[in-house]
Amino acid sequence: MASANPAFDRLMKKGELIETVGEMTPEYLKELKHTLLVSGDTELISAPAYYLAAQRAPSINAFMTGIAIIQDELAHAHIAYHILEELGEDQEKLIFSRDPKSFRYPYAFDVPLETWTELIVANAMYDQAGFCLLGDIHEQCSYGPWKRGLNKVMLEENFHLRNGRTWCKRMSQAGGESREELQSAVDWMFPLTIEWFGLPDSMKMHSTQLDYRLKGKTNDQLRQWWMSLVVPYMEEIGVAVPAHMEVADGQETWVLDYPFPCTFDPEAKRWDFRDPCTWDDVMLRWRARGPRNAEMIQLFQEEFHNFRKSHAGA
Ligand SMILES: [Fe+2]
Ligand SMILES: [Fe+2]
Questions:
Q1: What is the per-residue pLDDT across 250-264, written as a single tens digit (0 to 9) for each?
Q2: Quick one: which ligand is closest to 152's CA?
Q3: What residue ranges of the chain have pLDDT lower than 70?
């Protein structure tokens, strides 16, 4: 991975932090910006995605927790966009003038969270995915300003996923309709989070992000880590998830109980485990984006441009 910049190669090799643009190669800068954009977009979009469901909170206390989580997510987005601005991008344009389809967040957020139950399952599963992905970046990160910014993010993601777990346990123990609603949400949201980690290593092993220490684990390693945290917890609280652990040669592996990938109907929020598909099919679904993409982006872009217009010349 030698570059035309020996000083950069030395920093990478020694595992030291990069602090300024002057120390980077153009390829590193490009990869860093891409990684930051995915992170910023994911944090940002979680705010409108969670907001719809937070309004259905069963109590004022629960609502305040939902709003506190949304506030955290906006601050997380700001950290990533602010660093992008320091790296020469225009934060305002990135957030308020981009085409909805060009936002780089996981497809899962395009499927609407419509109830409090779906929000707390998102906390237990999506925020757990965020915790794994960002935890990996936090540990490995070769860019100093982001590594330090992620200290705050990790603490707060931990709070979000704890909120999800506490509520999942409460709803499961309540039994009856609460438990059924919880199980229905898990049924469509578990496989959606499995997809979140992207192509399997058999199709995409090499990643420039790994070379540049902007990532330490492969997609499959991250997926395994996520399952090792989510599956035992769900089983412990009596919620069924379509995965189990197998041990071979002393090695524990989490195995899915359905064909991966397979077909998903986003309108009905239903997976068809009898209908396996290809990764090309998944990519097509991801690229077309889901039901809420344009609506969520419009939510903050329209407000901003209306505000600008009403204050023009003032
Ligand atoms: Fe976040
Ligand atoms: Fe979060």
A1: 999 999 999 999 999
A2: 1
A3: 1-3, 205-206, 313-314
The DSSP output letter for 212 is T
Distance of CA 140 to the CA centre of its chain: 18
* Å from CA of 233 to ligand 2 middle: 18
Q: What is the pLDDT of residue 22?
A: 93
Query: What pLDDT is recorded for position 312?
Result: 79
Quick one: which ligand is closest to 159's CA?
Answer: 2
Q: Which domains does the chain carry?
A: 19-304 (1.20.1260.10)
DSSP conformation class of 99 = -
> Which residue do the tokens 């998830």 mark?
241
C-alpha 129/C-alpha 123 separation (Å) is 9
- Of the candidates 136, 21, 140, the one whose C-alpha atom is nearest the C-alpha of residue 83 is 21
Q: How many Cβ atoms sit within 10 Å of the Cβ of residue 12?
A: 20
How many whole angstroms from 2 Cα to the centroid of ligand 2? 37
Task: Give alpha helix (H) positions in the chain.
Answer: 6-14, 26-54, 60-86, 91-96, 116-140, 144-174, 176-196, 208-211, 219-236, 279-288, 293-310
The rounded Å distance from CA 105 to ligand 2 centre is 13
pLDDT attached to residue 313? 64
Residue the block writes with tokens 């982006």: 297
Distance CA 65, CA 73 (A): 12
Ligand 2 centroid to residue 59 C-alpha, Å = 21
Question: Residue 309's pLDDT is what?
Answer: 86
